[in-house]
Design a protein that fits this description.
Layout lengths: L2 H21 L7 E5 L5 H9 L4 E4 L2 H15 L6 E4 L17 E5 L2 H14 L5 E6 L16 H8 L5 E7 L12 H17 L7 E3 L6 H6 L4 E4 L1 H4 L3
Parallel strand pairs: 1-2, 1-8, 2-3, 3-4, 4-5, 5-6, 6-7
Helix pairs in contact: 2-3
């Protein structure tokens, strides 16, 4: 895909985000994470030159080398930001530290504790923004905390000095009609609001929810971060 097509796709997605914000009565910002998994470094560079500045990766094995290669390819331009949006195994926690500016997929206290320890061992005093993944739909195939597990997890994770909770993330069920995903997004927003009252010392600025097929509904329900791949890069 050439830079013109990427620019056109990006512009259309921005228009759809703006329209969804208006329908939802929103005057705050919505961040677009361009999901670049399986995309070549050259394609991501084209997307960068089309104006995208935030990319999301699902696999640490792919992300680290891609981030390094992209930085070299676009130099001397500053590199984009990268988010880890996929499942992260505890044993691979250290691999996100060189490149991820946020991890969306903290789905266990064990993972958070491991990640905190890995940061501590670097001795650099880093504080990494994270989102807690919530399995709102209750699907067995999905990772994440249940709503009832979250309070205890927040109590433990918020005490870790090298991680900073900034909100929640969820994956909605794959459905033909995006309206069917609306209850999931609405439930996450309501859960966030309840947690913000229960834990006034913790930041709940972000709701990462919504992808290519349902991001407009997610924005109407309060998403502050949407994760979009196909609408930017086309079908894989």
């Amino acid at each position: 895909m050439d830079i013109q097509q990427l620019s056109d796709n990006y512009a259309r997605v921005q228009e759809r985000i703006a329209a969804a914000r208006q329908r939802g009565g929103r005057d705050d910002e919505v961040s677009l994470v361009a999901v670049s998994k399986t995309q070549s470094v050259e394609t991501v560079a084209q997307a960068y030159h089309a104006g995208l500045r935030l990319f999301g990766e699902n696999r640490v094995e792919e992300a680290g080398p891609k981030a390094e290669a992209l930085a070299r390819l676009i130099a001397p331009d500053p590199p984009p930001a990268w988010h880890m949006i996929g499942h992260l195994q505890s044993r691979k926690a250290a691999q996100v530290l060189p490149w991820a500016s946020m991890v969306h997929s903290i789905d266990s206290t064990k993972l958070a504790t491991r990640l905190n320890r890995m940061i501590e061992e670097t001795g650099e005093g880093q504080v990494l923004p994270i989102l807690l993944e919530v399995n709102v739909s209750g699907e067995a195939s999905k990772d994440g905390f249940t709503g009832t597990e979250l309070p205890a997890a927040i109590g433990s994770i918020s005490a870790l000095p090298h991680l900073r909770i900034e909100g929640l993330m969820t994956m909605a069920p794959i459905v033909d009609d995006p309206e069917l995903a609306r209850p999931v997004f609405r439930a996450l927003r309501r859960l966030r609001d309840e947690l913000a009252v229960a834990f006034p010392g913790v930041r709940f600025d972000h709701l990462s929810m919504g992808m290519t097929d349902d991001f407009e509904v997610a924005i109407e329900e309060g998403a502050t971060i949407v994760r979009i791949g196909r609408a930017i890069f086309g079908e894989r």
